[in-house]
Amino acid sequence: MHDLTSLILSASYAGLFAIVFAETGLLLGFFLPGDTLLLAAGVLAAGGALSLGGIMAAVVAGAVLGCVAGYFIGGKVGPRVFASQDARYFRPEYVTRAELFFARYGWLAVVLARFVPVVRTLVPTMAGVSRMPLAPFTLYNIVGAILWGVSVPALGYFLGDRIPHLDRYILLIVGGFVVISIVPVLLKVMQARRAT
């Protein structure tokens, strides 16, 4: 946690924006510490080191613009990848399945993906690959970014103001957060599989 705190303080708001942008928009950003970073930033804001409003603004902006970048990367690169010769991994029927999924659950996927590590990196790109219409994608992207970019730092701020030495429990809190986020998604997937 000390290293993460140092990173946040040295990079400040521009660093938060860049990390969130990379995690949500670039496929290689899946390893970045999204939820942990936001909680830790909220804890720092509770201690007065950063402004909570500044953190939220940087995170929401990075999340919205990162998702838009991921969407356009998926739209540009996706068709070429799925038309390639490597049929083991990139079959055209996968695109058809993705199109059906986003037509049916697009809003849910884009909004809830924010709260699930790795999934939040993949969903914008897959929405672009499946040609989800840009207008609803943008609306759901903004809604999800605001929910995630406000609630997670606010949780860190709230808890950091009330629990001494919260930095010792950040990973446990993030783990609980991820489990709570994944359960509705898994239930929806199981329900969809039973229906087919």
Automatic annotation (TrEMBL):
The record's Pfam families line, in alphabetical order, gives:
VTT_dom
Question: Which residues are in the VTT domain?
Answer: 32-152
Q: Does the keyword Transit peptide apply?
A: no
- GO CC annotation, single: plasma membrane
| Positions of transmembrane segments | 7-32, 44-73, 94-117, 137-157, 169-187
Q: Where in the cell is it found?
A: Cell membrane
What is the designated name of this protein?
Membrane protein
Query: What InterPro entries has UniProt attached to this entry?
Result: DedA-like (IPR032818), VTT_dom (IPR032816)
Query: Which keywords appear in this protein's UniProt record, sorted alphabetically?
Result: Cell membrane, Membrane, Transmembrane, Transmembrane helix
Task: Give the originating organism.
Answer: Deinococcus soli
Similarity-based family: Belongs to the DedA family.
Q: How does it sit in the membrane?
A: Multi-pass membrane protein
